[in-house]
Amino acid sequence: MKKEKISIIIPCYNEEKTIPLFYNEITKITKKMNDQDFEFLFINDGSIDDTLNIIKKLVKKDKRVRFISFSRNFGKEAAMYAGLENVTGDYVSIMDVDLQDPPFMLIEMLEAIKNEGYDCVGTRRVNRKGEPPIRSFCARLFYKIINKMSKIEMVDGARDYRLMKRQVVNAILSLQEYNRYSKGLFSFVGYKTKWLEYENIERVAGETKWSFWKLFKYAIDSIISFTTAPLSLAAVLGVLICLIAFLAIIFVVVRTLIFGDPVSGWPSMICILLFVSGIQLLCMGIIGQYLAKTYLETKKRPIYIVKETEQDMVK
Ligand code: UDP
Ligand code: MG
Question: Whole-angstrom Cα distance, residue 79 to residue 84?
Answer without folding.
Answer: 9
